[in-house]
Amino acid sequence: MVAEVVDHSNAKYTHVIFDMDGLLLDTEQIYTDMMGQVASKYGKTFTWDIKVQIMGLPGKICYQKAVELMELPIDADQFSAELQVLKNELFKNAEKLPGIEKLVHHFVKHHIPIAVASSSNSKDFITKTSKHTEFFKLFHIVTLGDNPEIKQGKPFPDIFLVTLSKFSDAPPAEKCLVFEDSPNGVLAAKAAGMGVVMVPDERLNVEFQHNPTLVLKSLEDFKPEDFGFPPFDE
């Protein structure tokens, strides 16, 4: 994977917003398995090409698009209901992804304001984070997809702009750095006027990365000093 060459020498970010699924927590394979199980009941297949198109979308829109793309003989509500049964069982097993523990604690240590902005609804968020409640207490703000202030989900910028407004010192958008894994998330962050570091699935074609500020294979490769933050302690 080749990252776009970007000069960060003058970049100075002061605030950070993290996506959750596939970025903080390793839930994307869980989503793939669940959708595959439901699709197979109706003789359909949940493919990577379909997944790319729905990653990062808010719940109802995501399910509607999945139903249409897979030509399922059920509506989005039924699809959601069948998924929910699996979610209740599987999401509680979600683990943190490599590099995130070190990075989040680094930001906390240096008093960098951090937030989570996830398309997940409140119920799913509670299940997904049930093993990591202390970790998620480190975030100053958590904005979820069912927040009534969010009129349109990713790829629209609403969730990031709403999150930005909740920081106590309300920084300008260009001072905020977003971490994302999905194409729709990158588009949303860029539409909000923010910098964005993408950590995509290795299968994602470059054309679907949408030219983020930087592309990394893992958050373990992130260098805070490249974006105006204090470097990791040696």
UniProtKB/TrEMBL annotation:
| Gene3D superfamilies, A to Z | HAD superfamily/HAD-like (3.40.50.1000), Putative phosphatase, domain 2 (1.10.150.240)
Give the InterPro entries listed for this entry: HAD-like_sf, HAD-SF_hydro_IA, HAD_2, HAD_sf, PGP-like_dom2
Can you tell which superkingdom this protein's organism belongs to?
Answer: Eukaryota
According to UniProt, the name of this protein is Pseudouridine-5'-phosphatase-like isoform X2
